Amino acid sequence: MDKCVKRTVQAINYNEKIGIFGDYDVDGASSTALLANYFNDLEKTTYIYIPDRKLEGFGPSKSGFKKLTQNGSNLIFTVDCGTLSFDTIDYYQKKNIDILVLDHHQSETKLPNAHSIVNPNRYDENSELKYLCAAGVCFMFLVALNKKLRDNGWFKKNNKNEPNLINYLDLVSLGTVCDVVPLIGLNRAIVSQGLEIIRKKANLGIKILKNVCGIETNITAYHLGYVLGPRINAGGRVGKSSHGANLLLNSNAKEVFKIATELDQFNRERQYLEEDVLNKISIEANKTQSDPV
């Protein structure tokens, strides 16, 4: 964590462009938006990349990293992925592109050649926070980064208001519930407080998606897991993989409404496809039962 924070502070001080490579599920989208929103609040340039599930599969790819570096990023975060991405990370580290991994997936005894890997489920980690999802790990990183910037006097020197990290818990709670990690300890506190933030000061994407879904009551953990989450996930399954992150990042209400509407439609397509497959399986199973042995 210390190494990761130190490198990020360096990037902030020297106005380096920052790339964020995220996964296409809700946890990945929430983590991507969490980091990007924080850096945007500091007025730092960020670029995001979410891989296409069908064409690129899971985790960092050379083509995805290439697009980030073409935008000028020489520091790349991988969120909700990267712990097992040996070849891609090694390739770009050798090109002097520093890779900072923020992940929660179980590691092997060998780790990628990244600049730093923050993961409570590293084989050599004794953390008591192994139950965190990626958004939770990203939030803990922002806590450490924000403290370092405060201790360095960065906010005063640059005449910037220090972000209130509590206001980011709407995204962290979304990722936590939808990644189905245990709601114990810190996770429970995150979701409890995150739901309050959603009710008081909802992320624009969450607020508009809530309206598109016709939710008329205060959002609960049920709504995150069974109403909003499936729609955000649908972008990576049958639509556009980047829609989830862009929904949670965009500040243009018109554009966000368009994304939310498309995610709602993608979810309907996903439901239809699942129902169709289930019906076909049921028909085949009935045939098997009726055929003589």
How would you describe the overall organization of this protein?
This protein has 13 helices and 5 strands. The protein has 293 residues and is an alpha/beta fold. It has a 5-stranded parallel β-sheet, sandwiched between helices. Strand 1 (17-22), helix 2 (26-41) and strand 2 form a beta-alpha-beta unit. Helix 10 crosses helix 13, helix 11 crosses helix 12 and helix 12 runs antiparallel to helix 13. The chain is globular and about 75 Å long. The N and C termini lie far apart (61 Å). The model has no long low-confidence stretch (mean pLDDT 94).
Counted by DSSP, the helix tally is: 13
Rounded to an integer in angstroms, the radius of gyration calculated over CA atoms is 20 Å
In the predicted model, the low-confidence regions spanning at least 5 consecutive residues are none
Strand order of the largest sheet: 2-1-3-4-5
N-to-C series of helices and strands: HEHEHHEHEEHHHHHHHH
Shape: globular
Query: Assembly type of the shown chains?
Result: single chain
Q: How many strands appear in the DSSP assignment? A: 5
Share of helical residues: 55-70%
Q: Strand-residue fraction?
A: 5-15%
- Briefly note the structural class of the backbone: alpha/beta
Mean pLDDT: 94
**Sheet having the most strands:** 5 strands, parallel
End-to-end Cα distance:
61 Å
